[in-house]
Amino acid sequence: MPSIDLTGKVAVVTGSGRGLGLAYAHALAAAGASVVVNDVDENVAEQAVKSITAAGGTAVAEVVPVGTTEAAERLVNRAVEEFGRLDILVTNAGILRDKVLWKMTDDDFDAVITTHLKGTFTCARAAAVRMREQGEGGTLILVGSPAGQRGNFGQTNYAAAKAGIAAFARTWSMELGRANITVNAIVPVAATAMTETIPAFAPYVEALKNGEPFPAFLRKGEGFGTPEDCAGLVAFLASEAARGITGQAIGIGGDKVALWSHPQEIKTAYADGGWTPEALADAWPTSVGAEPQSVGIPAPKFPEA
């Protein structure tokens, strides 16, 4: 089994003060990378840095809310000023403002889109500029979500942002390929502040806090585990072992890793001269509409009591 060695590499991980982002930062530092930790809370960011350095890693904090070009440039510049270069960007920062469509405000929508979608764009753009200048390649790891792959009730803003992030990965993998910069989206599933409010998972998350491990049906059947379970994928994708992997959406959680498919045509039909409304109504049930696609994140399957 090859060793994952990121010695000499420099990473920026947005939203890495706690939860998944902190786990990603720890994994990168443990593999030898120097890490710029980012959070909006100075105390949280500094505690994250202390936890990384206490474990033998190297890290500094940059406290700024992602979304703007100025914030992105601050993060990239901090990496260069502290460590001389930038090799890895993980766009993890995110917030939630969940509401059903008819109750969602402009502010609810804009806040989530700004942090997730625009924040990913501005940070990736700034990182790509720097990596192209260095001329030695690099790695962009964009954090998606099952909600972006399948939709989720009450998450118009979040699902749209995460779907866009998956599209970013596909597009940028083509644009940055000649510069030897890989771009992938990861789709993590873990017990975090964002997921522990889901009623079905709440008792298991509470048990985890009390030192009890997740049961096998969650770790394997649902692919649901801890943030640390997702962090190995980030360190792997940042390494030379993953240099040939780009443009992919990769799920990770618990004991499970998975490759998500790209959207593609699954069934076609043709009509000479084109389709009238009547012809569509006649053909739909027995042709392309015979097996409509499902939507939403499947409910967890718990064992019978």
How are the SSEs placed, and which strands pair?
Blueprint: E1 10-13, H1 19-30, E2 34-39, H2 42-54, E3 58-63, H3 69-83, E4 88-91, H4 106-134, E5 138-143, H5 146-150, H6 156-175, E6 181-188, H7 202-209, H8 216-221, H9 227-237, E7 249-253, E8 256-259, H10 277-283
Parallel strand pairs: 1-2, 1-4, 2-3, 4-5, 5-6, 6-7
Antiparallel strand pairs: 7-8
Measured distance between first and last alpha carbons: 40 Å
What class do helices, strands and sheet pairing give? alpha/beta
Describe the strand arrangement of the main beta sheet, using strand numbers: 3-2-1-4-5-6-7-8
**How do the SSEs run, as a string of H and E?**
EHEHEHEHEHHEHHHEEH
- What sort of overall outline do the alpha carbons produce when their principal axes are compared? globular
In percent, how helical is the residue content?
40-55%
Strand content: 5-15%
Description:
The structure is a single chain. With 305 residues, the chain is α/β, with parallel strands linked by helices. The chain has a single domain, classed as NAD(P)-binding Rossmann-like Domain (Rossmann fold, 3-Layer(aba) Sandwich). 41% of the residues lie in helices and 14% in strands. The protein has 10 helices and 8 strands. It has helices at 19-30, 42-54, 69-83, 106-134, 146-150, 156-175, 202-209, 216-221, 227-237, 277-283; strands at 10-13, 34-39, 58-63, 88-91, 138-143, 181-188, 249-253, 256-259. Strands 3-2-1-4-5-6-7-8 form an 8-stranded mixed sheet, sandwiched between helices. Helix 1 (19-30) packs across helix 9 (227-237) and helix 4 (106-134) packs parallel to helix 6.
